[in-house]
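Entry 14. Ran structure prediction on the chain below.
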Amino acid sequence: MEFNIEEELKKLPAKPGVYLMHDARDTIIYVGKAVSLKNRVRQYFQASRNKGVKIEQMVTQIAWFEYIVADSELEALVLECNLIKEHRPKYNTMLKDDKAYPFIQVTVQEDFPRVLFARRMKKDKSRYFGPYTSAGAVKDSIELIRKLYRLRSCSRRLPQDQGKERPCLYYHIKQCDAPCQGYISKEDYRKKINGALEFLNGNFKDVLKELEKKMMEASEEMRFEDAMEYRDLMESVRQIGERQKITGSDGEDKDIIALAVDGEDAVAQVFFIREGKLIGRDHFYLRIARGDTRGQILDSFIKQFYAGTPYLPKELMVQEELEDQEVLEEWLSRRRGQKVHIRVPKKGTKEKLVEMAQKNAEIILRQDRERLKREEGRTIGAMKEIQNWLGLSDLVRIEAFDISNISGFQSVGSMVVYEKGKPKKNDYRKFRIKSVQGPNDYASMEEVLTRRFVRGMEESSGFERLPDLLMMDGGRGQVNIAQQVLDKLGLQIPVCGMVKDDRHRTRGLYFNNVEIPIDRSSEGFKLITRIQDEAHRFAIEYHRLLRSKGQVHSILDDIPGIGPARRKELMRSFKTIEEIAAASTEELSSLPSMNEKVAQQVYDFFHNTQS
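Output, structure tokens:
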């Protein structure tokens, strides 16, 4: 049934809700929210309005729209966030990153608490510190805390499991006081946990004093190894202390958010301040459309980022006023369970922090553009060079093949794929040579190519995408083999060979019966070398895997009815193959996993073999 946009616009209700724009292929290209669906959606189709480049382009692609009525603007905002995350529409500002930040969890509800690494903050009785931007820093901090306070890391239920097992290695290396054995009282252990909590709250002075005292005592008693250990612990504590630079005296939690925008690229920089300390920062790449204002981009970023993060600070500081600031504050406050403010600082330290975040975002965006240019030279630029050398057009996909064997033993073939100059590992394929005996690389290559392209002519085989260029690891001989296979199957695919010099280094490409010299300092040559090395590596790894499997083969695997479990039981019970061979059927059938039939098969196998 045809969708009449003009007629459907008349039916729109003057209520809050979410609208979804679809293109002719039924793909959702935009999701938005509105206080009044009737007013908001009609604006897209009014010719007199100055809509901007992005909206004008989007409207030309709208085939139909649908909407969901909500009870309030806040409910519409929540629904909008969920739909954007699910459908990732083309014309919405989108986060390219989906990051999760770790926490340090202290299980204070346990009789003998632990300090753990946690991916999310649960609604339990534990105390959580974070979130932190670096998982590595969190793990280092936890390891340091366990060393400083000799806390347990095991999952034993204490005190119920006390004394049931021997103390672990951490007790023997003096990194745990073994509460699992009752070697430390609940009260003394709790004092250590309180010290760890103080440490996590940023109180490093007492720890440093205590470590320095112990270091000096160890040194005076000529326990120099212990003294060095205390010195190293002090250095670790100082490093963690230096990470937490003081940014304010209010001691509150806040996030500083700023943008850098260039065309259709944007970077959001976030500084995480917890209890007045800058504990970390992170940046996020955004896909935007030309014409989006900073306020619109910030609005979209906040919705998507804080819909997924487990922790919300009391305050967000941004560089510009937001369109939906009031409803965003209400939504964030509901998620946190306490009031959350969004502010645009105009002066003082807070304004400087926002400026610093913006400068960092600009640096990241500039560096990323330079990196992308270099990467483009190594990939797309290199493909264009190869394309020009061979006189081809629209070169996107290259497939390269190699054969690996040792004196013809277990010959294998490899197929590697590069698209736009980058390896596409999901399309790599391995071939075990079936029809060729002995070291015949040409015949093996013919089998591999035939199997690859016969499968490629079948639907839903996983091989349907044909290459724009075949690259053979060899000169005229390998190229001729490939050409014969393609001619036999009626396929028109360019084939070139990588010609090597006396030192087995690529010196040129063999194409259309001509050797084409190539510049060894060019990106195209470097890409050819990478493709050649990758084809070798993939083939050799597969061959090595098959050899290793062959080397662990046991004579017991040749006996009918003997699988991995029975094989292990036989070797555990009889120790050697000779003892198994000498065993009677009664002895064999006495094993738990054996029955009389299988025991007889084992007995017959050895006695028939010996006779």
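The chain has a mean pLDDT of 82. Will compare against last week's run tomorrow.
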